[in-house]
Design goal:
alpha/beta; Purple Acid Phosphatase, chain A, domain 2; five-stranded mixed β-sheet; 13 strands; globular
Length: 239
């Protein structure tokens, strides 16, 4: 089975080679309209889902990231009286999926699971250290403690491991990987972890060896650099 993973496309709907499963690990909203819900609705309908429909993939699974404000009910202002905080999956995405006949192809994961080819995939959008952005909160350990046992873990935030979430800023090394997320990975032992967020973080495959002999492969699948230019290829693995 072929898995392709991308993240941090920020509106750049790049060509995707044929694959069995496409994973998008957050920050897919275009920067210029990311906080404008009605523009985002139009973009999802006219651009994003049209792009998804054209991709030669059996299944597409995606999570949100800190730039995907339309997915976070805390940032959605609904103009319909007495109806607050509409759910992205139910009230925004589903009608478009029905329209494009993509209900069986695309699944949005928000601290939830899906199954593909007998693999359990769990997706989580939260990101530490992004106060004022989407999917930020004061405490993250309880969020990552809720991650169940799964084969594939998709997070926007990178774990704290071997530079996946670290960059140099003005000559100073800064670490944005999450200790709490890495702790959850050590406990749940997924076979694969796909993340993003730190565009220029370490893009080499990282392998964590658990004490019981199991291994977890971890990938930063951001396609853009910190200047928001496409600089990295999608991660492609065969399992």
């Amino acid at each position: 089975m072929k898995i392709t993973a991308i993240s941090d496309i920020h509106g750049s709907l790049i060509p995707i080679e044929p694959t069995d499963l496409l994973i998008i690990a957050g920050d897919w909203s275009p920067l210029e309209i990311q906080t404008k819900i009605w523009y985002m609705r139009e973009w999802i309908n006219d651009c994003f889902l049209t792009w998804c429909a054209q991709i030669d993939a059996n299944r597409i699974l995606f999570v949100a990231g800190n730039h995907d404000f339309i997915c976070d009910p805390n940032f959605i202002q609904n103009p319909i009286p007495n109806l607050q905080n509409p759910l992205f999956k139910k009230d925004i995405l589903w009608p478009y999926l029905r329209k494009h006949r993509l209900l069986n192809k695309i699944t949005y994961l928000d601290c939830s699971s899906a199954t593909y080819n007998k693999l359990k995939i769990y997706g989580c959008p939260y990101v530490e250290g992004c106060r004022g952005w989407a999917f930020s909160c004061g405490e993250y350990k309880h969020i990552y403690d809720q991650i169940p046992k799964c084969d594939i873990l998709v997070t926007h935030q990178p774990p704290l491991y071997n530079g996946l979430g670290s960059i140099e800023v003005d000559g100073v090394h800064r670490e944005f990987g999450s200790y709490a997320l890495m702790d959850a990975i050590q406990k749940r032992k997924p076979k694969y972890v796909f993340c993003g967020h730190i565009h220029d973080g370490n893009h080499e495959k990282q392998v964590y060896h658990h004490i019981d002999g199991k291994i977890t492969e971890m990938y930063n699948c951001s396609i853009k650099n910190e200047s928001y230019n496409v600089a990295y290829k999608p991660v492609v693995i065969e399992i």
